[in-house]
């Protein structure tokens, strides 16, 4: 069997510098080449332009290693792992296929790093400094940019990252364009990610987005965070600070949307600070910082559990919003929640918000509070009616609480029956046919007048005169009014059921 040449016979080109030749050797071993001095100020990548030749590696050399590099030594795996180096020139790996790991830890790049349309193994840029990253349509398992500083922009739209994109504590002075980005697991921008202009994730498909404590848009932009039509399982953005608004319209979040204590500022007064129109979410927490986040639009949203702040929370646009549960919703909270509805509806009548609130009370078994909410709905609706219809609507409310308080009609009936009994006990009507018919009973006679259809025989046997006759007419009219309003209210309730 023929023997392969000894890989150790392979040597770097003669015109490579000492640091570059060391990198050649480390690349074949997959080992880390560390140029750091151990002094924090001297190792700061943002000051990399001052690093001397002993720490400099040309971008061309790195491209040669990644695309045409030597084979690994026996028992080793090739990898580019370098720490504290200054990469001079533009590292252009556009459309490249890189079959080894790329790891720049705490390095400084003099020009743009391009990974456009490239296919690579994992890329690590943790703690490094870059003027700009161009990585549109990149395909790789993971991109790690923790603590990285990017002076310009990150272009990563249309890329496919099978595991994670990590931007924890990174600083991007420009924007991050992640539209149509696909990530198998997490987009991490936690614990102080700073984006000077905007972060765009429109149409992206991501396992989970974690932007807790991020600061976006502080350097000026038309919109701070735009993630329209985003699809993900989790969207965490608690205690985030965003200038110029958050837009998640049309997003589909199969799990939790967390916006608790979010601060959104510098939004025009006529615009909502957070747009969640047509969003779908299993759980939505919008207990935001109201002093800055003035309003949230939930038009047409579909939410499983909605968590908000009834007092002191942002103004909500509830048009066509549907939710299954609302929290907090303790017993006897109807006055607070009805005030919440009136504030958010701003005087406009919309039936669905009332019905959703009533349904949320019913889910918890608070049927009495649900009925109070629905009565409030009809009272609000009454304000939109013409005056003639308002009178009939008002009578239904007074007599039977729109059918939700049938006992109220019974109370009116008892009160009128007592009144009639007293009046007819003092002044008895004369018999129609003296010596014939039943004896006079003031209570039964009163009920005979009040209850339509039912006939106890008293009304036909006795004839009131003068003022007593007018009093009898009033009782008959009130009886019909009680009956018709009660039937109308009950029909309304049963029809909605």
The largest sheet is:
15 strands, parallel
Question: Which structural class best describes the helix and strand composition?
Answer: alpha/beta
- Evaluate the radius of gyration: 38 Å
Number of helices: 10
Cα distance, first to last residue? 87 Å
Residues in helix, %:
25-40%
Poorly predicted runs are 1-9
SS strand fraction: 15-25%
Write down the overall mean pLDDT.
Answer: 87
What's the overall geometry? rod-shaped
- E-strand count: 38
How many domains?
2
Structure characteristics:
497 residues, alpha/beta, 15-stranded parallel beta sheet, eleven-stranded parallel beta sheet, 10 helices, 38 strands, disordered N terminus
Notes on the structure:
The protein is α/β, with parallel strands linked by helices. The protein folds into two domains: 27-382, no CATH class; 390-496. Helices cover 29% and strands 24% of the residues. The longest helix has 31 residues, at 466-496. It is rod-shaped and about 140 Å long. 43% of the residues are buried.
Short recap of the structure:
This protein has 497 residues and is α/β, with parallel strands linked by helices.
